[in-house]
Amino acid sequence: MAWYYYNRSNNGGGGGGGGAWGRLSKGLLPLLALQAASEFHRIGRKPPVTAGLLLANSLIYLRPAFVDRLLPTLYEVSFNPHLILKHGDLKRFFLSPFYHVGDAHLFYNMTSLLWKGIQLETSMGSPRFASMVAALLCMSQGITLVLARSLLLFFDYEAAYYNQFSVGFSGVLFAMKVVLNAHSDEYAYLHGIVVPARHAAWAELILIQLFVPGVSFLGHLGGILAGLLYLHLRGSYTAVDPLTVFIKKAFDFVSWPVRVIRRFLSFQRPRTSGRGRVGSSQATAVPSGIWRCPTCTYDNSSRVDVCEMCSTARRGSGFTPLRQYNRTGDLSTEEVRRRRIERFGG
């Protein structure tokens, strides 16, 4: 899950992708779609925020005609500390994580998001997960900006500040990895190396930097530090953060038509035709508008005074039976069966 960077001197264009990422197989996108469909079909509760993030990143990369004219080019949003601070270019700050430079870049980031997002969102809930992603995105971008500026001021290292243009969602993914494994006692396997899951992000940071060309070390490091900062703030702040409350209210507002439709479809009207059910002879709660026959336990509508199953007259509750029948215990099983046949058997 690389946060790809390129040098302005080598890539001055404004289009889609380039470099090693862009030359890899185009067959990865159908594989990504198949994997996402399989995972969402497998789980019971569908995580909407994870699905929305996958869709947003994919649409921005594919740039279909209905959104192409609305989207800035990759070069216009690439993360560059110098341009962000000099011109206050906030679109580079907020939009660069959603851009990718090739099929492989998008595939590896989105498969990682799919796995981490499902686990975190199903355990945290969608509003809190959305709040966390927003916070991690801002913190990881901000920390990366501070790191690049610090390298220039204290070590006179200009490349990360002036020349590198970075895009990709993996800064947020590194932060999510830190949050996901914060309290884990398990072990993770990274390229054949077994490491404690709590430290997997640090090991992955080093391994990716060694074996994957064209990745941003500062972007990944900023993600890890953002994850640690988020855990610290969450541990010291016990109340629900305002952003989570706002997102929850937005979720409730947007989803209320769906809840109304579901409630309408599952609503069952009280029976009025008398076609009830045969219940238990034990004393149980009977719905309003229904009376239970003391002989055969059939549930009848309150509109009828004679049991539709065995013809036993209704007694009590101020009603006078239309015909007088034997008392409850006087009818034998054979008599009840005979009356049912007479009434419903023709």
Automatic annotation (TrEMBL):
User: SMART domains from the xrefs?
Assistant: ZnF_RBZ
Q: What GO molecular function terms would the record report?
A: serine-type endopeptidase activity; zinc ion binding
Instruction: Show the GO cellular component annotation of the record.
Output: membrane
Entry's transmembrane regions: 129-155, 201-231
RanBP2-type domain: residues covered = 287-316
The record, for Gene3D superfamilies, names: Rhomboid-like, Zn-finger domain of Sec23/24
Name of this chain's protein: (wild Malaysian banana) hypothetical protein
Q: Which organism is it from?
A: Musa acuminata subsp. malaccensis
